[in-house]
Structure formats: C-alpha cells, structure tokens
Amino acid sequence: MQKYLVAILLRFPPLLSAQGLRRILTLLLLLLSLSQTGEAADKPRPIQIAITPCTDILKTFKEYQPLAAYLQRQLRQPVKLIIPKDFPEFERLITAGGAEFAFQAPHTYVRLSHLYNRKMLLKALTPEGESRHRGVIIVRKDSPLQRIEDLKGKYVIFGAENDMAKNLSAKRLLTAKGINPDTNLRGYKHDGSCESIALNVFLKTADAGAICDYSFKNINASKEGTETELPPNQLRILGETEEIPTWVFAARAEVDPKLIARLNEALTALTLKNNNHEEILESAEIGGFVKAQDQDFAEIRKIMSMAR
Prior knowledge:
Helix content: 40-55%
Radius of gyration: 26 Å
Strand content: 15-25%
Number of helices: 11
Pfam families: Phosphonate-bd
Structural class: alpha/beta
Organism: Thiovibrio frasassiensis
Largest sheet: 6 strands, mixed
CATH superfamily of the largest domain: Periplasmic binding protein-like II
Shape: elongated
Distance between the termini: 62 Å
CATH class of the largest domain: Alpha Beta
Protein name: Phosphate/phosphite/phosphonate ABC transporter substrate-binding protein
CATH architecture of the largest domain: 3-Layer(aba) Sandwich
C-alpha cells in the first residue's frame, strides 16, 4: 500500500502551496490508516481456550499444545491456550470472560455452568474410551494397610480442595467407612498433581494418597521414556470412589454457535484409531471427545451440595 501512496505523491507537481501539501499529506495518512485497519481485520482473532491446571503450568501447556495445534489446522484460525496457576484463578478468568472456551473438571463446570452454552457441551473420554472415571486411594505395595478403615490415625494427601475425584469423592469414601478426615486422620494436606501425590506416597512422606484411576495406571505401570520418577509396580489401590463424569469442554454462552459447532466437530473427530490423532490424545491423557448434556452432571451437583 505504501508504494502506491508514494506513486500518488510523485504525480503532483513539485511546486505546491503549503496548504495544498498539507491536504495531500492528510489524504495520504487517511488512506494509510484505512489500509492498516483493513489488514488487521483480515487477520482472524485467536480462539482462546482455558484449561483447568492439574499439574504445573508448563507441563499442562506441553500436554495440550498438540491439541491446540490440531485445532488451529482444522479451523484455520489461531488458537491460544490459557493455563491459570490454580482453580480460583481459572474461575476468575472464566467469570471475567477472559476465554471463549474452557476445558475443566466436572465440579468446576458445575460451579460455572450458568456462564456456558449448556446445549453444546462435550466431555472427554478416558484413554480406555470411558466417559466416567474414579478416584483411587493408593498406598505403597509393601504397606501394612489393607482396608480404608485402616487409615485411621494415618496421614493422607488429597487433590486440590475443589477437585472432585481426588478430594471431594475421596473424602466421601473415607466418611462412608467411618473415618472423619478432620478428626480421625493424623493429618492431611492438598496437592494438585497425581504424580506428586504418588511420589509422596512412594517416598513414605504420606501413608496414602488420592489420585485419578487412569493416572494410577500410567504412573504404576510406567514405561521407559515417560516423565514419571517412580519405578513401576510399587503402589497399589486401597479403595475406589464412586464413578464421576470426566472433564467438560464448554463455550461461553455468548460465543457464536457456528464457531462452537466447528470446534466441537474437530474435537469429536479425534480418535485413537487414527495414527495422526494418537500422539495428540496421548499427550493430553484423553481418549477423545463425545457430546454431553448438562444433566450428565446432576450427580456432581448433589455431591457438591452435600459437601457445603
């Protein structure tokens, strides 16, 4: 555009009045501004996807970057991942409209469901292709503990305070077995990462820990080249929570339904049967996506209301 403006200027006679020159320069600046505005309008705005942090920010970003790259190719539009440092920051971000889409644990979805388009939801599948999973209480393989009831007087690590599988459901399991976490345990703390919890149990920093069932399989049956610091088959399951839904992919209510449909179509097309998709899904530790309904999370609402 600039070379055309220069050509226009050169077509005018060299002897111009100051007033005439000012008019020409004003016209040229206006044309340049309009051209830049048009160029900016041609560039699509990035699609912003916020992801609930389950481990540290860098690890979470690395896990989901292949998925973001896939969506960018499919939609032909930039995709930006936003990984808040913790659950409260994630909720503040979504509440403030800081991202159009969110991939979150089911309890987080329930807390924020009034902000989403509840008619166009997806839920993730586990690596085994299931749409529900459990939390598990783990101990060392050589631990003398044999039942959940044996945790009385022991030290336990749960997941983040508002984590469904690793905290709320895990504490419900203990309570059902006659153990009040606040009065019958020697103590407990919260930790967001399944890997960190498992490592602490292995190192005997804690007697037991609560993690996700699919994470236990990956951690305990570790393969060469994985990032886990644990030797294989050193942990075992002491008990399991009730089944709960997997993570939810949702769009804010004001997002264009056509964009939601395009993005949902790209996500539900992912399958472990496709070699090109395998690395994308395995990196994020998911098995794909399927359509979901808001009523799928009625059980989560019930559990959360009882925990208040």
